[in-house]
Design brief:
This protein has about 150 residues and is α+β, with helices and mostly antiparallel strands. Helix content is about 40%, strand content about 15%. The protein has a single domain, classed as Glycoprotein, Type 4 Pilin (2-Layer Sandwich). The N and C termini lie far apart (about 90 Å).
């Protein structure tokens, strides 16, 4: 058996081996899978952020209404000058809602959380949250208070 020898270096040529790597088809499959995952993950994440911001708004409203109830218990009125309330309007920690007191009289109050920025654009279900001295909860969006509170 005669072996071919390289004239320049005097050695036998290497056996052809398969080059290891990815084909274009394999790369396209990976990109498609990643696209599907991202297409599912981003809307889910946005929905989670909207729901999380709603929770902040509800907590802020309940805390403010409890403060007003303590004021009523102490002074027998909601609008007493000695009631210690946070500066109004205030923002929730995520800055997604502005909390304010649109109505505050001797015998009644209404507190509300108004969505701001991206929250207002994305949350059409709940919109503005409101609660009054009787504990009645309402929303301005297309959903019901049961859906949102």
């Amino acid at each position: 058996m005669k072996m071919n020898v390289c004239n320049k270096c005097g050695t036998a040529p290497a056996v052809f081996s398969r080059v290891h790597g990815f084909t274009l088809v394999e790369l396209m499959i990976v990109l498609i899978v990643l696209g599907v995952l991202v297409g599912v993950a981003i809307p889910s994440y946005r929905d989670y952020v909207v729901r999380s911001n709603r929770s902040e708004a509800r907590a802020a409203l309940l805390e403010l209404s409890q403060t007003l109830e303590r004021c009523f218990t102490r002074f027998n009125r909601y609008d007493h000058a000695s009631c210690t309330l946070p500066a109004m309007p205030m923002m929730t920690p995520s800055r997604a809602y502005q909390v304010r007191i649109p109505q505050r009289t001797q015998t009644a109050f209404t507190v509300e959380a108004v969505p701001q920025g991206q929250q207002a654009a994305r949350d059409t279900l709940c919109g503005t949250f409101r609660i009054n001295q009787a504990g009645q909860r309402t929303v301005s969006g297309s959903g019901t208070p049961r859906d949102c509170w």
